[in-house]
Amino acid sequence: MTTAAAPVQGTTHAGLQAWVDEVAAMTTPDEVVWVTGSDEEWTRLTDKLVEAGTFVRLNEEKKPNSFYAASDPSDVARVEDRTYICSVDEKDSGPTNNWMDPNEMKDLMRGLYKGCMKGRTMYVIPFVMGHLDAENPMFGVEITDSEYVTVSMRVMARCGTDVLRRIEGLGEAAQYVPALHSVGAPLEPGQQDVKWPCNPEKYIVQFPEERTIWSYGSGYGGNALLGKKCYALRIASVMARDEGWMAEHMLILKLTSPEQQVYYIAAGFPSACGKTNLAMLKPTIPGWKVETLGDDIAWMRFGKDGRLYAVNPEFGFFGVAPGTNEHTNPNAMATINKGNSVFTNVALTDDGDVWWEGLENMPEHATSWKGEDWTPADGEAGVLSSHANSRYCTPIKQCDILAPEYDDPQGVPISAIFFGGRRKTTVPLVTESRDWTHGTFMGATLSSETTAAATGQVGVVRRDPMAMLPFIGYNAGDYFQHWINMGKDADATKLPKIFYVNWFRRDEEGNFVWPGFGENSRVLKWAIERIEGKAAAVETPIGHVPTPESLDTDGLDMDPAELAKALAVDPEEWKAEIPQIEEWFAKFGDNLPTQLQVELDGLKARLGVE
Ligand code: GDP
Ligand code: PGA
Ligand code: MN
């Protein structure tokens, strides 16, 4: 949001002012600055970051008004083992979250926050997730001592004085999520700052009953841009449970058929499993068109007409850089090439541009994300120029294929929900569920190999229910029940159809069997034709999968044997999943909805498992 307003100091909202004063008294910054959202402020902050060495200004011709940053090598991804849901009652955080007593956690963190902003500026960022004109605008206020975070928040969320004025207009009763962030790196007088201040000790904490977020120690991504995963997923999922809606880790896309029929699709894949790419897909099948509404988060509620409507609460894309190129995601490339973006942990080329693995035009020389010389020979030796979780942060409004409905606070009616993960084996290209409850079972048992989006081992298969494992702000058993209830209370004929996809199956040589990216439009088409009752399918123990003829393969350069491999449902592989699903469900004890146990029993019976 760009307003010409001068920086405001303070607010007429007494509760908000009191919180800001309290945080300032605890963290003792040198000054407090209220973020306005103005262009002048962007220039001031980015200049300051350039001066500090955190940002390198990129070549104006290649990436106007854009910046390169390299983080501390220890601060590169979400820290799931340091992320807590501090509900009053431990059982409300459930078996999938870390928990600590909220009072104990607050005592501990107050100790860390004491004086933690010394020598720094404290920024107060009023923001709104979703539309300012929504019936109930979802306000937040992030306090941070990081200019990098402030600049990134301005890209990712609607921020500034316009938002603050709206909060103030609602009076003291205005609801907002207070979100406190510090990099945890106070400066002594005269002490030289580092390029990427952070603290080895990290806490990412949600207090669900109080709708409050406290984050400490990290400056990167979801750990620090608190509107995104912390608010729009963890806190919002709790609000959604209480108020009868859904906060999901899903992209939203608009699909138009050659007959000009319009469908909206939401898809939940774990981090770094293809949401941003699917959201901006360029179909390879003639006459089909995709437009984007969102690439990471969907808030969904039933409309008066009984259909499920989705809005994207975000204002920017925080996309995985490696693998992004003119072939895989031309729309993302066009978006970032317009500038106004921040690139973190990619490589910096000698002509002031950015580069990463998978991008065209490999440079002869670059500076790696670790600040080291990098040449193609290093690449051949397996040295990466960019961190696997390096990201571009870019305004959504720059996306040429942004659907006009993005600006509608009512959102769009969803026809299909896709779940998907990264599995080398077992999971076929696409499976259609029988009904909402079966689809909920597919989501609840979703599995995926871990990725570099979170710290820890990569490539380990884990259950990631609805791609929400790190983001459910309460007991995941209750979350499953919420999903089932949402379907039970709805008109079944108007519910979205649920599908399970896997773009990542491999052959014996380790190659992906399905070409993916733009070719995924073939799967979207099949799903729509299933909804319309037009496409054929084979019934298997896990659900309906395409017959090889029902999937549009016109112009697809793929060996039929490979296609069969992509679509195959191997009962032996699925039998091997059963003990893993049982072990997963056992975690929930009495909190597992009986309907999911019934679904599992049905699957076992169809597979002939005792
Ligand atoms: P997100 O984090 O869920 O939004 O995932 P992205 O869309 O950013 O993709 C993460 C990584 O997976 C990137 O390196 C992509 O290039 C890669 N990817 C995305 N879609 C596909 C696909 O259909 N096939 C294959 N093989 N890779 C994909
Ligand atoms: P994504 O989001 O990988 O799901 O797009 C960023 C993150 O994991 O923090
Ligand atoms: Mn993404």
UniProtKB/TrEMBL annotation:
Subcellular location: Cytoplasm
Domain Phosphoenolpyruvate carboxykinase C-terminal P-loop: 245-606
Keywords: Cytoplasm, Decarboxylase, Gluconeogenesis, GTP-binding, Kinase, Lyase, Manganese, Metal-binding, Nucleotide-binding, Pyruvate, Transferase
Domain Phosphoenolpyruvate carboxykinase GTP-utilising N-terminal span(s) in chain numbering: 19-241
InterPro entries noted in UniProt: PEP_carboxykin_GTP_CS, PEP_carboxykinase_C, PEP_carboxykinase_GTP, PEP_carboxykinase_GTP_C, PEP_carboxykinase_GTP_N, PEP_carboxykinase_N
Binding-site residues, GTP: A272, C273, G274, K275, T276, N277, R391, R422, F517, G518, E519, N520
Top enzyme class: lyase
Active site: C273
KW Nucleus (keyword) present: no
Cofactor note: Binds 1 Mn(2+) ion per subunit.
EC identifiers of the protein: 4.1.1.32
Pfam families in the cross-refs: PEPCK_GTP, PEPCK_N
Catalytic activities: oxaloacetate + GTP = phosphoenolpyruvate + GDP + CO2
Example of a GO biological process term: oxaloacetate metabolic process
Cofactors, names only: Mn(2+)
Binding site for substrate: R78, Y220, G221, G222, S271, N389, S390, R391
Keyword Lyase set for record: yes
SUPFAM superfamilies per record: PEP carboxykinase N-terminal domain, PEP carboxykinase-like
Sequence positions that bind Mn(2+): K229, H249, D296
Known pathway: Carbohydrate biosynthesis; gluconeogenesis
Subunit structure: Monomer.
Family classification: Belongs to the phosphoenolpyruvate carboxykinase [GTP] family.
Functional description taken from the UniProt entry: Catalyzes the conversion of oxaloacetate (OAA) to phosphoenolpyruvate (PEP), the rate-limiting step in the metabolic pathway that produces glucose from lactate and other precursors derived from the citric acid cycle.
Record-given protein name: Phosphoenolpyruvate carboxykinase [GTP]
Species whose genome carries this gene: Knoellia remsis
Gene name of the encoded protein: pckG
